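Box 3.1 A note on notation
Throughout this textbook, protein chains are presented in two layers. The first layer is the amino acid sequence; the second is a C-alpha cell string describing backbone geometry. Keep the layers aligned when reading.
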Amino acid sequence: MAELWVSVVLTALIVLLFESELVLPGMLSDDSNTQVLTGMVMIIVVLVAIPSSLYLFKTGHVNGLLTGDESSAPRHLLFWGTVRMMMLCVPMVVCMFLYYAFGENVRFFYLSVICALCLFMVYPTLSRCLHETGIKSDAKDYDPTPNDGAPRSY
C-alpha cells in the first residue's frame, strides 16, 4: 500500500513542481528524434506492463508460490505484490515526468493516466491479498495482533 501512495504522491509532486513553474517544462523538447523514440519505448513499456501486471498472479510459478505454503505466502505476496505495483507505478511516474520534460507532449500524459487507472485493478486490500493467496479467511475475521499470544495464521 505504501508503494502505491508514494508513487501517487511522487507523481503529484512532479505535477506541482512543473505547474508552479519551479521547474520549467520543455527541457528535452529540442530533439524531436529523442522525443519520438522515447515515446515509442514508453508505449511499448506500458503496453507490456499493464497486461503483465494484471495477470502476474495467475502465472503458474507465482500462483504456486502464493497458494502453496500458507506460512510463506505473506512473504511471497509482499515480493510479488511489490513487483506488480512497480510494473504500473514506475511507468506512471516516468511518463508524467516525460510529459513535462518534452514540453507537455500529451502522449506521455495519456500513458501516465492509463497506468494510474490500472492501479484501481490491483489496489492491495486485505481481502484481495487473502483471496490471491488462497487463505481461507474473511478480512473481517483477520486480526493482525492476536491477544492470546498465539502466532498468526497469516
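The longest helix spans residues 73-101. The CA atoms of residues 15 and 96 lie 8 Å apart.
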